[in-house]
Amino acid sequence: MEVILYLGLIVVVMPLVAMLAYFSVGARARSQDTDLILAEGNKVIRVVGQTIRNATKINDPILGMTSDSLSLAVDDAGKNPVVFKIANGRLVKSEGPGPLVELTSSRIAINQIAFANTSQPGTPGTVTFDFTLASVIFSKNFHATASLRY
């Protein structure tokens, strides 16, 4: 009789323990993806924003237009122009004839990016940019604005 009681308890408890472990691992994976996407999004905003602030001119998009790439003129002729665009699901940066530098991780994808030249006539220039980063289980939209210092 006791053996049947213990077997019954094991049959009921083991699936519950397995489900708890499964959901715990899933929650951890979602948390890691969320942290990665937030960190990558903040890095993109910081790098693109700093490059815009240090630029001397917005080459593309032209005033009032939007584009999926951004071209900036900078003081250093060897790094001119600086271009941001999507390549193979990642945001990349190129400086002059130099190689493409990936700004986002291979673990996430950048689904879209839009750079808008929201400058006002007679001002140094302002760029507003929006992008979406995604993993298998999480995605987030980001929005930022930066202005040239010059």
Provide the descriptors you would attach to this structure in a database record.
150 residues, alpha+beta, 5-stranded antiparallel beta sheet, 4-stranded antiparallel beta sheet, 1 helix, 9 strands, elongated
Describe the 3D structure.
The chain is an alpha+beta fold and 150 residues long. 35% of the residues lie in helices and 34% in strands. The protein is built from 1 helix and 9 strands, in the order αβββββββββ. The strands form 2 sheets. A 5-stranded antiparallel β-sheet has the order 1-3-4-5-6, with helices on one face. The protein has a 4-stranded antiparallel β-sheet with strand order 2-7-8-9, with helices on one face. The relative contact order is 0.17.
Helices and strands in order, then pairings?
Elements: H1 2-54, E1 57-60, E2 66-67, E3 70-73, E4 82-87, E5 90-95, E6 101-102, E7 109-117, E8 126-134, E9 139-147
Antiparallel strand pairs: 1-3, 2-7, 3-4, 4-5, 5-6, 7-8, 8-9
Please summarize what this structure is.
The protein is an alpha+beta fold. It is built from one helix and nine strands. The protein is elongated and about 90 Å long.
Rough shape? Answer: elongated
H-E string: HEEEEEEEEE
Q: Strand order across the biggest sheet?
A: 1-3-4-5-6
Counted by DSSP, the helix tally is 1
In total, the number of strands is 9
The quaternary state of the protein chains shown equals single chain
- End-to-end distance: 86 Å
Radius of gyration: 24 Å
Mean pLDDT: 87
Biggest pleated-sheet summary:
5 strands, antiparallel
Indicate the proportion of strand residues.
25-35%
Helix/strand structural class = alpha+beta
Percentage of residues in helical conformation? 25-40%
- Unreliable spans: none
